[in-house]
Design a protein that fits this description.
Length: 456
């Protein structure tokens, strides 16, 4: 059960129909009390810190209610009641019987192994649901992650903002150690700012300390802008995801859905990025930002495509030199040109037909440039690829004939600053996941790679 402190003399004994039994915490907007409703069950009652005539604070309270009600109920404490018009405005929400992540780490120490994985997946799931509802939390941190007996919840939407509302700039909003660099520069905080704070939260869960520490708030903010984060004991896929999410440019960070996909894609027996050779590029695990492994071009993974048929034996190596674990992959296509021009391909994997056309999105790692950025590949007429910050690069994809056992496409007619033509190699891992690698034209060592998830 969360720590509860006694009521203070200035605290009301009741708010509306709710008896107040103790304090659960204090935030910038108000005090949260442990309350008891008419049914006798516990509730959380948040009393607004505001004057009777403070209309802006009441509007912010109303926005919090709307934000919480938009979000899927499994990932936050739902609003049960509210009074925004009285002398003492308050919100009543579900009571989550469990400590915050901050309290738990303080009492029991950092999370490790499967416990840390559960925190990573649970928080990424909640954040993906929050963003899908069109809400930006803007104060994602360990203190706002509650470890309830029925699952993890993200709470305190007091400074959240609806994505369809007008963005605001100005002074940074949030906890100093959990503010994205764009906020410190006075720019609007979008979903990418929450992803940045998700990474900081995971660092805290794994190490028990903030990724950016200093003696003063100003020094903390300076370290976020110009310093290097302390990632503690994080390694493998979790470390690589955190590094990607802490990119200085919000456009270079994966979104919450891509982070979740990468976490869920790590299957038993499949080594994470930490097991790969860090010295050279190549395809990497889904969503991972690990340095990929270089492979000879004639041994890249995947099914060999011919004009009317394709065949891949069990002897083909998997991504990063690893065996996929499938005995046989048979790919049937009318022609490689039809895949791009018509956007229709059927793959028989373990006996089942699967379509490969549509739009595929993911994140790429460019080791030699030290960059991470989003990628979108459209395998439907007209086949196109977009990549880079804000997907500002674009180019046409056309079939190419090269050995190597992968689908190879030529990337040309490229537009955008510092954007280059080249070749794209794609290896599917089922109907909704794929690995890719891009080699710049005429520069075999200029290569970036990553993973893709089918979005439609």
């Amino acid at each position: 059960m969360p720590d509860t402190s006694p009521l203070r003399p200035e605290d009301p004994p009741r708010l509306g129909d709710y008896r107040l039994d103790g304090r659960l915490g204090v935030g910038g907007q108000g005090v949260v009390f442990l309350g008891v409703g008419a049914s006798g069950g516990p509730v959380a009652v948040k009393l607004l810190h505001a004057r009777v005539d403070d209309t802006s604070a009441r509007r912010a309270f109303a926005r919090e209610i709307e934000a919480v009600r938009r979000v899927a109920p499994f990932c936050t404490a739902q609003v049960l009641d509210a009074d925004l018009d009285g002398d003492r405005p308050y919100i009543v929400s579900e009571y989550v019987d469990g400590p915050s992540l901050r309290e738990h780490v303080t009492a029991a120490g950092p999370r490790t192994g499967g416990d840390l994985d559960r925190v990573a997946v649970g928080t990424a799931t909640a954040l993906a649901a929050i963003h899908r509802a069109g809400v930006v939390h803007r104060d994602f941190k360990p203190g706002n992650v509650l470890l309830g007996s029925d699952g993890l919840r993200v709470v305190d939407f007091g400074i959240s903002r609806l994505a369809d509302a007008t963005a605001t700039t100005g002074s940074p909003i949030g906890t100093p150690a959990y503010i994205a660099p764009e906020q410190l520069k006075g720019r609007p905080a979008g979903p990418a700012a929450d992803v940045f704070c998700w990474a900081l939260t995971l660092v805290y869960a794994a190490s028990g300390r903030h990724a950016y520490t200093a003696d003063t708030h100003a020094a903390v903010m300076a370290r976020i802008l110009y310093g290097t984060p302390d990632l503690g004991p994080l390694n493998g896929l979790l470390k690589d995801l955190v590094v990607a999410c802490l990119a200085a440019d919000p456009a270079d960070r994966p979104d919450a859905g891509q982070v979740l996909s990468a976490l869920l894609d790590r299957s038993p027996g499949r080594p994470g990025p930490a097991a790969q050779d860090p010295a050279a590029p190549g395809p990497i695990a889904s969503g991972s930002t690990a340095r990929p492994r270089r492979e000879p071009e004639d041994t890249l993974p995947g099914a060999r495509l011919d004009a009317g048929r394709a065949d891949a034996s069990a002897g083909h190596a998997g991504t990063g030199g690893r065996r996929r674990g499938r005995a046989r992959v048979v790919v049937l296509v009318a022609s490689l040109a039809a895949l791009v021009a018509v956007g229709v391909a059927w793959v028989l994997i373990a006996g089942g037909p699967r379509r490969l056309d549509g739009t595929w999105t993911g994140i790429a790692r460019y080791p030699s440039a030290g960059r991470v950025f989003p990628v979108e590949i459209r395998l439907a007429a007209p086949a196109r690829m977009r990549w880079g910050a804000d997907l500002h690069c674009s180019g046409r994809l056309t079939p190419a004939s090269r050995p190597g056992g992968v689908l190879v496409l030529t990337l040309d007619q490229v537009k955008g600053d510092a954007c280059y033509a080249g070749s794209v190699s794609i290896t599917w891992r089922g109907e909704s996941a794929a690995d890719f690698a891009v080699t710049r034209e005429g520069e075999q060592d200029a290569r970036y790679s990553g993973s893709l998830t089918r979005t439609n």
